[in-house]
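Appendix C: a fully annotated inverse folding record. The material below is reproduced so that readers can follow the format used throughout the book. The structure is listed first as tokens, followed by the designed sequence.
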């Protein structure tokens, strides 16, 4: 039965008109021949002549040569021919996998969709759970990356089938409803209309498994308009109606649909399948009523017809009902034999059936006094029954919520009805006082209009004030940023200059003539560089005062490194080096990046205070499509708390601390950079700037 449901969607794309075999010699190009031959194969599929389809597919493969699009299609046809010719699933599998391989190689979404749908069912039929799990993960990736309506409609339905097999009904219904939404967007056709009905019927089957028979009937009724032209699909719908009415003990309705199934013509594989299903439902009804002999006759028909259908799921269900009937008859040995047949792969077909089979096996062995075997099957029953109870608990919560919502809506309706009565009384009274009410309404309207105007004016004024406040707040932030920049970029050079002047004034005897000359030269150079830096910063500040936004352009890192080296040329006892072997060019704001580098260098210099042989190394390199810039010092390192401002926007560190990490953080974010820090106690600190391209 599951196979037939899934196949219906596949037929959506096929034509419904047949013609004679085309003469390929009439067509000049190979592409023309392949198109004609493929259309011919589509027509043969609609006629369900699978032996002929196999011949057509093989010829199509032979003339497709190295054309992956046509190869994927004809291998798909060959798989269909095998699958629907006596269920030759293993041969079908080989061809479906080849179809998927060729369609993936050229990203042919339509062919890939069809192959994925068929493989999902074939893996299920062959009980190849590992391959099926991998296939489902791939289907999810396809759905996440495509907006194609056809693919979404087919593969969402296929995912729903997967979750139905594992009794995850909530997920199944969610995917099926999504599939229905996409199906309704497809071009209208008989096949697509029927597929919508099939999806509604499948949702009904899920509610049947959850024992929500009224809900199931609701969805079966939704399906009716879509399947009324297809006796083939209607037979399945009748069986679902029978299941609902068996549970509700409505014999008249059960017999009505049982008779209807026998009147529905079908030349398709579903004939024996549907008849087996119907007789199984009849047997179940009479078992519940205690009429075991009548139930036994229907069960025998269900088993016989199930074997003719050659469908593993239907055979399992037929053997299950027969096992139950034999148990009720007291023939426990035959019941065990039949139930063991049913248990083969039952878990893969239907978890609930598997649970019931093991329960009945345990009871049968217990009736024979074989307690060890009874305990064994009871353990299996208990394990899987607990899993189903957990799923049922989830569903109960959903039902309770739905019940509450319905109750609330009912109360709302009652309230509205009462209100409507009151309104009618008020209307009658209003007729007597029409003049006064109209006058009052006009007066209220005028007052309301005045209040509205006043409110609008107030809103406009508030909006203007809000804009001005935002501009003022932004101006204050910009001013604060530039004060921070000036503080960090100028503090170190100025402090070195002051330090030398104090030393020269207070302890001139400590400086010999050569050292004094060297330091004077260094101070002059440092002062000149300081002046250059100040002019640079002040000019940049002037240009940024109105809008503090980066100006991206191509710059060489070596230029920024050279300017930064000059800026800190007055620093003694610390070796500052820059490594840029790739001569990297960056698309960034020069002044933003320069400020970040100066600040980090200044921080590193402070970290190397009282450290002998202090070193600061700047490096630049490309890695993983990102430019990395790092600064490393060999200072004492720090704690994560000290660097918290790099990651926490709420953390604010005062400018006197010398870190200014909040400034570095803001500037880096503005030019699409990320900063990471790695600090180890007594080993030093490394800041890494990652520039996103």
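Designed amino acids, in order:
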């Amino acid at each position: 039965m599951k196979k037939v449901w899934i196949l219906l969607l596949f037929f959506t794309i096929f034509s419904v008109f047949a013609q004679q075999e085309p003469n390929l010699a009439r067509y000049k190009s190979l592409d023309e021949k392949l198109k004609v031959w493929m259309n011919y194969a589509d027509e043969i599929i609609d006629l369900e002549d699978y032996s002929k389809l196999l011949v057509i597919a093989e010829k199509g493969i032979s003339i497709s040569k190295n054309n992956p699009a046509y190869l994927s299609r004809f291998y798909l046809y060959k798989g269909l021919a095998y699958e629907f010719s006596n269920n030759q699933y293993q041969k079908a599998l080989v061809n479906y996998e080849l179809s998927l391989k060729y369609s993936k190689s050229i990203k042919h979404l339509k062919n890939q969709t069809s192959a994925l749908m068929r493989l999902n069912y074939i893996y299920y039929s062959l009980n190849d759970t590992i391959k099926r799990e991998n296939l489902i993960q791939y289907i999810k990736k396809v759905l996440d990356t495509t907006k194609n309506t056809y693919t979404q409609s087919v593969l969402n339905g296929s995912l729903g089938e997967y979750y139905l097999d594992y009794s995850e009904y909530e997920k199944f219904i969610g995917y099926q409803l999504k599939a229905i939404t996409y199906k309704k967007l497809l071009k209208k056709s008989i096949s697509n209309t029927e597929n919508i009905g099939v999806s509604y019927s499948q949702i009904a089957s899920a509610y049947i498994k959850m024992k929500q028979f009224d809900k199931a009937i609701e969805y079966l009724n939704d399906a009716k308009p879509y399947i009324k032209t297809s006796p083939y699909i209607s037979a399945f719908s009748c069986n679902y109606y029978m299941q609902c009415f068996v549970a509700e003990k409505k014999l008249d309705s059960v017999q009505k649909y049982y008779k209807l199934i026998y009147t529905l013509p079908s030349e398709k594989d579903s004939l024996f399948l549907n008849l087996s299903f119907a007789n199984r439902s009849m047997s179940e009804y009479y078992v519940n009523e205690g009429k075991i002999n009548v139930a036994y006759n229907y069960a025998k028909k269900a088993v016989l017809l199930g074997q003719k259908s050659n469908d593993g799921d239907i055979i399992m269900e037929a053997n299950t009902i027969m096992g139950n009937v034999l148990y009720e008859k007291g023939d426990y040995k035959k019941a065990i034999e039949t139930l063991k047949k049913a248990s083969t792969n039952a878990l893969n077909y239907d978890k609930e059936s598997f649970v019931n089979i093991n329960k009945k096996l345990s009871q049968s062995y217990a009736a024979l006094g074989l307690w060890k075997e009874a305990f064994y099957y009871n353990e299996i029953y208990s394990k899987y029954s607990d899993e189903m109870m957990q799923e049922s608990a989830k569903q109960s919560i959903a039902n309770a919520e739905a019940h509450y919502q319905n109750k609330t809506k009912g109360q709302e309706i009652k309230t509205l009805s009462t209100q409507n009565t009151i309104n009618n009384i008020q209307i009658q009274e209003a007729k007597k006082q029409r003049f006064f009410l109209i006058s009052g309404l006009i007066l209220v309207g005028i007052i309301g209009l005045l209040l509205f105007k006043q409110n609008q004016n107030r809103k406009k004024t508030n909006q203007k004030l809000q804009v001005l406040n935002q501009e003022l707040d932004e101006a204050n932030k910009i001013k604060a940023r530039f004060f921070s920049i000036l503080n960090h970029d100028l503090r170190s050079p100025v402090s070195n200059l002051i330090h030398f002047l104090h030393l020269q004034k207070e302890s001139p005897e400590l400086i010999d003539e050569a050292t004094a000359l060297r330091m004077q030269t260094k101070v002059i150079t440092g002062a000149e560089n300081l002046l250059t830096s100040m002019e640079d910063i002040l000019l940049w500040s002037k240009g940024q005062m109105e809008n503090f936004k980066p100006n991206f352009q191509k710059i060489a890192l070596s230029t920024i490194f050279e300017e930064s080296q000059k800026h800190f040329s007055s620093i003694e006892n610390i070796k500052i080096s820059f490594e840029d072997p790739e001569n990297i060019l960056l698309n960034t704001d020069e002044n933003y990046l320069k400020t970040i580098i100066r600040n980090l260098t200044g921080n590193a210099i402070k970290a190397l205070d009282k450290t002998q042989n202090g070193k600061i190394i700047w490096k630049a390199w490309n890695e993983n499509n990102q430019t990395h810039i790092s600064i490393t010092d060999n200072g004492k390192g720090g704690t994560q708390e000290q660097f918290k401002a790099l990651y926490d926007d709420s953390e604010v560190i005062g400018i006197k601390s010398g870190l200014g990490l909040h400034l570095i953080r803001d500037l880096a974010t503005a030019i699409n950079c990320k900063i990471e820090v790695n600090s180890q106690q007594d080993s030093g600190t490394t800041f890494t700037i990652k520039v996103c391209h």
